[in-house]
UniProtKB/TrEMBL annotation:
Annotated Gene3D superfamilies: Globins (1.10.490.10)
Protein name as annotated: Globin
InterPro entries: Globin-like_sf, Globin/Proto, Hemoglobin_trunc
Keyword Ion transport: no
Organism: Flavobacterium reichenbachii
Keyword line: Heme, Iron, Metal-binding, Transport
GO MF, one annotated term: metal ion binding
One protein family per Pfam: Bac_globin
Residues annotated to bind heme: H71, H117
């Protein structure tokens, strides 16, 4: 069996992001939401994700901005976030292994949890 290397370069991040979002786009549950929202702006989104993950994993100031607002009004619930995490972890585990890989999975899980709760909070606030 091949030993997987850890995420250590920008090229690794690009591979991780491209493969992950390739899997997302094909997914029956979350693919249509991403494809509808991004339409012909996938390359722009992927570039943002390369920058985001460089900042998160390598402490390189490549990303600036606030990631939550574009997600605030998406038609998603916990089921969608669970699928997102499942695809993320499966995708990354098939390509990489190591400390930074585990950090990426932990960060993604924390982000999904936070986004899910914030979306629920804003929905509840808007309905009162």
């Amino acid at each position: 069996m091949e030993t997987l290397k850890d995420i250590s370069t920008l090229e690794d991040i690009k591979q991780m992001v491209d493969t992950f979002y390739g899997n997302v786009r094909k997914d029956d549950l979350i693919g249509p939401i991403f494809n509808d929202k991004l339409q012909d702006r996938w390359s722009e989104h992927l570039q943002k994700m390369y920058n985001f993950w460089q900042t998160i994993l390598f402490d390189v100031r490549a990303y600036s901005g606030t990631p939550f607002p574009p997600h605030k009004h998406l038609p998603v619930d916990q089921t969608h976030f669970d699928r997102w995490i499942q695809i993320f972890n499966t995708t990354i585990d098939a390509q990489f292994a190591g400390v930074i890989t585990e950090e990426a999975k932990m960060r993604a899980t924390n982000m999904a949890f936070m986004f899910s709760h914030k979306i629920e909070y804003f929905r509840n606030a808007e309905n009162h």
